[in-house]
Design a protein that fits this description.
Low-confidence stretches of chain A: none
Helix content of chain A: 55-70%
Structural class of chain A: alpha+beta
CATH topology of chain A: Arc Repressor Mutant, subunit A
CATH class of chain A: Mainly Alpha
Distance between the termini of chain A: 24 Å
Strand order of the largest sheet of chain A: 1-2
Order of helices and strands of chain A: HHHEEH
Largest sheet of chain A: 2 strands, antiparallel
CATH architecture of chain A: Orthogonal Bundle
Oligomer: homodimer
Shape of chain A: globular
Largest interface: A-B, 26 and 26 residues
Mean pLDDT of chain A: 91
Number of domains of chain A: 1
CATH superfamily of chain A: Winged helix-like DNA-binding domain superfamily/Winged helix DNA-binding domain
DNA sequence: AAATAGTACTTTGCAATGCAAGGTATTAGA
DNA sequence: TCTAATACCTTGCATTGCAAAGTACTATTT
C-alpha cells in the first residue's frame, strides 16, 4: 500500500504524547498502517535535524534505554501545515470523484 | 509539497471520459492541484505500458494531434484498488486524529 | 513559400520517500 | 558468562514527482 502522508500520521501520533519507535509502530498498526523500522528511523532523524522534533533518553524496565520523541514549537507549526495539505488533498479527491 | 495519490486522481479524471494531457492539467487545476507536464507524461506512459490505459490519436482544430487516454478493463480494476487504498488511508488518518 | 509562434509530446537528470536487509549496542535473565 | 530480547542505526535500491531542455507538427503571418 502506498502511504504518502506518512510524515503527517507520525506527527499526529507524537503530538499526543512522547513516544518511541515501538510505540509509533504499534499505533500505526492499530490504524491499519504497516510501517517498518527502516522507514521510521531515517524519517525521525530528518525531522529532528530540521528542528521539528526533539527527544529525551528514558530508561526502560525491560531493555536498553529509549528515545522518546516530542514536537518542538516549530514542529507544531509544521503539523498545522501538513494538516492543511491533507485537507486540500482530501478536498481535491472529493472534487474529482463526483 | 508531496502529492501522493496523484495516480489515483489522474485515473479518476480519465475514468469520466477520454482526455489528453492538457485536459488533465486543467481538471487538476480546478481541484487545486498543480501538476506539470514533466510529471504527467512519464506517469501516463508507465500506466499505458502496464495495460492500465490505452490511447487514441485524435486530430485537433488548432494544432498537432493529441493522445486521448482512456481506462482499459484492467485499468478499471486497478482504479477500484486505488479507491480502497485511499479509503484505508483516510480511515487511518481519521483514527489517528482523535 | 518561408519564417514564426503555438501546441503537444518526450527525454534526461535530480531529489525525496519508503522499504528490505543487515548491523551495532545495551540490558535482563538463565 | 552466555543468550535472547530490545532498541537504535546504516546502506542500497525502487519509485515518485519535478525542472529543464528538446523534438515535431500545425496554423498564421509576411
Amino acid at each position: 500500500m502506498r502511504k504518502g502522508y506518512l510524515e503527517y500520521c507520525i506527527l499526529l501520533i507524537i503530538n499526543r504524547k512522547p513516544v518511541y519507535v515501538s510505540d509509533i509502530i504499534n499505533e500505526l498498526k492499530e490504524a491499519r498502517m504497516i510501517v517498518v523500522e527502516g522507514t521510521l528511523y531515517p524519517l525521525l532523524s530528518r525531522l529532528k535535524n530540521n528542528g521539528i522534533l526533539s527527544y529525551q533518553w528514558q530508561e526502560s524496565a525491560s531493555g536498553p534505554p529509549r528515545k522518546y520523541y516530542e514536537l518542538t514549537e516549530k514542529g507544531r507549526a509544521f503539523l498545522a501545515e501538513l494538516e492543511n495539505g491533507w485537507e486540500e488533498l482530501r478536498a481535491a479527491v472529493e472534487h474529482l470523484k463526483r
